[in-house]
Amino acid sequence: MLMSSSMDHAGPSVLRWLLSVAAGGLFALFLLVASPVPFPSASLFLAPTSPASSASRRSQLPLFVDPALSAQARAPPAAPASPPRFAYLISGSKGDAGMLRRCLLALYHPRNHYILHLDAEAPDSDRAALAAFVAAHPVLAAARNVRVVEKANLVTYRGPTMVTTTLHAAAAFLWGEGRGKGADWDWFINLSASDYPLVTQDDMMEVFSELPRDLNFLDHTSDIGWKAFARAMPVIIDPALYMKKKGDLFWIPQKRELPTAFKLFTGSAWMVLSRPFVEYLIWGWDNLPRTVLMYYANFISSPEGYFHTVACNADEFRNTTVNHDLHYIAWDNPPMQHPHLLTLGDWDGMLASAAPFARKFRRDDPVLDRIDADLLSRAPGMLAPGGWCVGEVPAAGGNRTGSDDPCKAVGDAAHVRPGPGAARLKRLVTSLLSEENFRPKQCKVAVVEEHVSAKKVEEHIPSKNVEEHH
């Protein structure tokens, strides 16, 4: 009642106020219609989003459901504060234990990490002796950075089991000693017992410390030529994937088409891979690594194609490839299935290549003794010295005996003392990263023949990429 009487009493004044508001609104509308400045249309708010803005918004979306993983994936890499570290897989087979041990001593550095794998053809006694050697060595045991694979993998020549062994080691390096706390390392390098270094680890660290840590050294090409018919189209089965004893590969009579979901690349089985790429291979967050792995499970000589195909088909990594395997490998003329065994006669060629590694060496060939003496300053049975050694390290080529081991204990492991090998390696890397060699040779897609006749394959002389992996 009180409210009703108040409204009745104020009726005339309220009516006058409403009329004034209405008149003002009509006048404002008249001004807007008569104005030469156009009124913003609704299309301003409903305009289709440009592809660029869509891509920008997508880039801001989390890569993972877990916010912690998304933040980690988007976080820029921290600036390197110390020399890089390398994770080495050194593999061998029956009769390779001695060469594998020698290769380890020549490659050793307390900052690095090492996995030694003797495949299932080697007797258990060889693995036990190798593990005992590591456990008894004062430096290796104290650093705890060398692991011997106890449960050996069965590896078939030219089969996919070499790929699974490499991925096994890569996963072990990422996992570390358990709970996913992997060791600190920057590049993964796979070698065999018949490989040997031509530079010291200090030389490697000196040169690689100046490089972006996402580079992947992969000798690769998409010009597969005769390999399309001889390797990509045949379907093979590797018994080592499911049998306890090694057997020959067997072939399926039918052939398959070349893949269209990804482009095939081939190259050397020896690589230097960045940690980001290794993580991508193991985690495979966009599933390409797993898809390609399934394809290469039935591919002849899959170690010479799997890693290359993944890298060159992944947008994130195709621009990180350097087209070289950092190896010196000599081939007969005409080239045979296996590379030429290196001897003292290949000395000049090895040095001229400036490569940090060479293969293939015969067990305890005299050329290895010269490499130890002239390039590594390594005495027989001792570790290759470096800036980390407590004692005084002789210059390359200096005489050393078993009584003057400067590396009985570890000093400053981050202290790098490069030698002449660093200058050679830097010359090679500078050439590989030059304007002429780097971008133009990255994952280049070649135009190849769609059909390769069987006659051409039979007439073809095996190229240098046809090689055993031990």
Automatic annotation (TrEMBL):
Entry superkingdom: Eukaryota
Gene Ontology CC terms, in alphabetical order: membrane
Record-linked InterPro entries: GLCAT14A/B/C, Glyco_trans_14
Main subcellular location: membrane
Membrane-topology annotation of the record: Single-pass type II membrane protein
Transmembrane portions of the chain: none
GO MF terms held by the record: glucuronosyltransferase activity
UniProt-annotated location(s): Membrane
Record keywords, A-Z: Glycoprotein, Glycosyltransferase, Membrane, Transferase
PANTHER family found in the cross-reference section: BETA-1-3-GALACTOSYL-O-GLYCOSYL-GLYCOPROTEIN, PUTATIVE, EXPRESSED-RELATED (PTHR45719:SF6), GLYCOSYLTRANSFERASE (PTHR45719)
Name of the protein in its database record: BGGP Beta-1-3-galactosyl-O-glycosyl-glycoprotein
UniProt organism field: Triticum aestivum (Wheat)
